[in-house]
Amino acid sequence: MTSKRNQEKYSKIKPEIGKYSVIGVLDVHKLPARQLQEMKDKLQSQAKITIVKKALVKMILKELKKDNIDKLEQYIGNYPALLLSNANVFELARVIDKAKSPANAKAGDISPKDIMVKAGPTPLPPGPAIGDLQRLKIPAGVEGDKIAVKKDTVVLKEGQEVTKAHADLFMKLGIQPMEIGLNLLAAWDNGMVFGKDVLFVPLEEYSNKITNAYRNAFNLSYNAGYLTKETTPFLIMKAHMEAMNLAINANIVTKKTVGPIFAKAHGQMNAVREAAKL
């Protein structure tokens, strides 16, 4: 049942939400207040961030009469916030992504990517630290006055939990594998809902996919003999080449084939002459 307090807060937010074409769901769990304020300042001209409780977010999505807005509910976490904007949602995602900063890992964190310890000398002097490395299955030895990692080693896979041993070692090695920034889980944009797996795809990947799609479509049309603005010149060239080869091999004399046919005959004559000498 919706509390009176949530009803009152929704009444204040409702008129404002209607002004925006983009509604995003954020997860602000473990996001320090300073970083949150910095992101609010950076997005000030493009978007507004409103911290709201989970129950209120659900209420807002339920009450809003917008196509597919209810699909955002599946992305709501325990520490949600709303991102409201009229800007291009993909441009917003790029701004958010670029604004992230590296941070130290803590026990219990989930690795956002594969974390690798690279081969080479470390800042650690010979001593107990070599045992810390080896316990985490990192091949290491002493080189000169430093401990060195013998080969590149993935210590944690994406999605695995950081233990205290991992966190302590990363701190000693100066590795900051975590990222601090806004976690945009999904966004509704004029009836379409985009998850973070779509929002944060690099631009070059989209460009490569479009290029590959064009290339595949062109090859399919060309090989099927399907005439389009793009394939017609190449299909005409192909047809001309095949017609020329057919006429030359069949010894059909035309203005364009007479030269190649004489050249072919001359070559055959020379071949016969050489064979006669044997």
Based on CA atoms alone, the radius of gyration comes out at 33 Å
- The name of the CATH superfamily of the largest domain reads Ribosomal protein L10, N-terminal RNA-binding domain
Number of domains: 3
How are strands sequenced across the largest beta sheet? 2-3-1-11-12
Biggest sheet descriptor:
5 strands, antiparallel
Per DSSP, what share of the residues sits in E-state strands of 2 or more residues?
A: 15-25%
The shape is flat
Q: Spell out the helices and strands N to C.
A: HEHEHEHEEEHEEEHEEEHHHH
What CATH calls the topology of the largest domain is: Alpha-Beta Plaits
Helical residues, percent: 40-55%
Enumerate the spans where pLDDT stays under 50 for 5 or more consecutive residues.
none
> Separation of termini?
105 Å
Q: What average pLDDT do the residues reach?
A: 89
CATH class of the largest domain: Alpha Beta
| CATH-derived architecture of the largest domain | 2-Layer Sandwich
Overall strand count: 12
Structural class: alpha+beta
